[in-house]
Amino acid sequence: MNIEHATKQLEQMRQEAYAYTDKGKVASYIPELAKEDPCQIGVSVCLPDGTILSAGEADKPFTLQSISKIFSLIVALCQNGQSYVFERVGKEPTGDPFNSIIKLETIKPHRPLNPMINAGAIAVAGMIRGKDVEERLQSVLELLRKMTGNPQIGINEAVYCSEKKTADRNRALAWFLKDSGVLTGDVEETLDLYFRHCSIEVTAKEVARLGMVLAADGMDIMTKESVFPAEVARICKTFMVTCGMYNASGEFAIDVGIPAKSGVAGGILATVPNKMGIGVFGPALDEKGNSVAGVKLLELLSKEWKLGIF
Ligand code: GLN
């Protein structure tokens, strides 16, 4: 790949996608996120040798939100193994919004359908071990620090407090899970861990690097060490295809065709197996909670560079 030419293309596509930033709205149910300027769009691409290409707001920090569900799942799988995890959370897409409660009651057994929706990720947070919430969070932070090579990765306190104060819906999901026997420990502590890992702050550049590690089956591209097993990476990438873009995952698979996970702060992590990781930041969201300009940009990029995996 000619880096100079590719960077120019990236900038052109970013400009084309910029026109879509006024077609969405920033998330407002977490009051702190409502302060973000919707007219931003940044993208970074990380290649197997660690080279990073960027355009737009690639160094602007934002919170992972639902993107963190991948990393809590990695920790839970590494600590507990597949059978323990998948006895408590399923592997099926829901077709419902990410914070929906309905199928927790209507589908038996009463467990969340997958770990990429809020109920599933809260169940996964309940599986992360440690003597207290600090130690449990630490295992997620350590994973992200290793994967990005940035030992400073931490949480955005303002976003964390803002979500914790307003998270009635997530609290309802968690207590329902407790009633169904999916959550067994201290519910408020598990919710606290969930809010904290959602508030971990990153940039699009770092997200691109996270995507590259997943693309390399869990291998740290700089040290060539395995950070987590290839089997765990395979599970994550499969969930990203089937459930990563919430109830727009089918459409995204057809239009873009790359495993991806979005978050309500406007981030999208995309991973092209063996080829590259992509990080996008565009806080204006569509009605399903995905970055409008971010999805557009990934669509352009996938077509231009023929990245679709199908
Ligand atoms: N922290 C957010 C929530 O629980 C994450 C949701 C998301 O990014 N879709 O509502």
UniProtKB/TrEMBL annotation:
The protein's Enzyme Commission number: 3.5.1.2
Transmembrane segments: none
Domain of life: Bacteria
Enzyme class: hydrolase
Matching Gene3D superfamilies: DD-peptidase/beta-lactamase superfamily
Catalytic reaction annotation: L-glutamine + H2O = L-glutamate + NH4(+)
GO MF annotation terms: glutaminase activity
Keywords: Acetylation, Hydrolase
UniProt key word Disulfide bond: no
One record GO biological process: glutamate biosynthetic process
Residues binding substrate, per UniProt: S66, N118, E163, N170, Y194, Y246, V264
UniProt subunit comment: Homotetramer.
Family: Belongs to the glutaminase family.
Name the record gives this protein: Glutaminase
